[in-house]
Amino acid sequence: MCVRSVKALWLAARHVTGRSPVQAHTHKLRRTVSRTKWVPSQEVLMQRVGTKFIAIHVSATRPSDNTTAADIDAMHKAKGWKGIGYNYFIQRDGTTEQGREPDEQGAHVSGYNDIALGICMAGGVKEDGVTPENNMTEAQWKNLEYLVGRRLMAYTSAVVQGHRDFPQVAKECPCFDAIKWAYDLGYPTPQGLKAEPHPERWKTK
Ligand SMILES: [Zn+2]
Description:
By secondary structure, this protein is of the alpha/beta class. It contains 5 helices and 5 strands; from the N terminus they run ααβαβββαβα. The chain has a domain at 47-188: Peptidoglycan recognition protein-like (Lysozyme-like, 3-Layer(aba) Sandwich), CATH 3.40.80.10.
């Protein structure tokens, strides 16, 4: 993902949409679907003990599937889990859905679920359904950037990394270098903060 200055991004977004990037993102996030739509159980799930990581995932579903949080919920229930294992899900068109409550413990990184928020993007494999591929859409990248930035405001000691960046993970997920992605945006990573663009950038969103 190319790195642009905030001003350039702002101007480009206004030129295209007539709205500021923040307004554009907010517009998308308003489409967030309540988890009660697909988790009828009133069971209160365990809260995380803290949030040291924001873990990025992909669903490993075909781009043409237009996978939703409800689809993932069904898949994870079929595994015997308590519904969707992620806290957020970003559809191919950028629509951001809430899975588990933001502070609830998810089921997405073995051994780290009590300290990691889970965000999953639809896609990540080719149309053959198995070959890993970085094929997320521009709308997904933009809403991931916005969502992670917002969550970092709540979880101020968290760092951003991909599923495969956790120890002993033998998966490609999320099929791109999430640490580099975050680092280039000035978000906190296990490798620290990038000096340019300004590391405080996300706080202004
Ligand atoms: Zn994953």
